[in-house]
Amino acid sequence: MKFPTIWLGKSIELELSGCKLPIQGEIIDMGQDLIVVYGDQRFIYVPLHHLQSMHITKADDPNSTSNLPAPDPELDHNNISYRKILMNARGRFSEISIGGRTLHGYITNIMNDYFIFFSPFHRSVYVSINHLKYIIPSPTNSTPYSLSQQHFPMQPVSMPLSRTLDQQLQKMVGELVSMNLGDKPYRAGLLKSVDNNLLELVEAEGNTLIMHTDHVQTIHLP
Predict the structure, then answer these.
(1) Contact 50, 93 (CB under 8 A)
(2) Is 205 in contact with 194 (CB distance < 8 Å)?
């Protein structure tokens, strides 16, 4: 189902699954699988499959003069789509939201169902495309925490990349891994096996647990 064009130009508030705070702003563009909201002087790209509810806000009162028109976005919006925005944001300092928390850094690689996000705090994070709540690319030449480029060198991932996240998890068998960055369901331990969409993880106390890979939002190697 295509997003109704009647919402274009409306000031809205929307709630996303897994996000604690609503997103507010004006819908300035839309595609088959995402909408673009301009709010707080930022362009927020929201995949539609996380949309729980949305309503028009009082800010959309036609007599209101408090809202300035949105500037032209730096990213290409021709034939806009979720995957195309990820491609266009690659290498640009961005904020992303996964599972109720945000990360700041750069998309470095995009695979079939996941991408690599390089963060100053976590280094290379493998992010499930299905679990990304939104992405906010920053203006050109922005850097994290106002660091100069020489203080923030992007490092390549330490292992070859597979096409899918399940295949990548199989390459991590035998490694200590951290999943979901502290958000529920947070897991960390020794990845013992991955088979038929189920992974086996040995935690610090020696307990073994089974987890379905659909619930893996992010994964990184400590």
Answers:
(1) no
(2) no
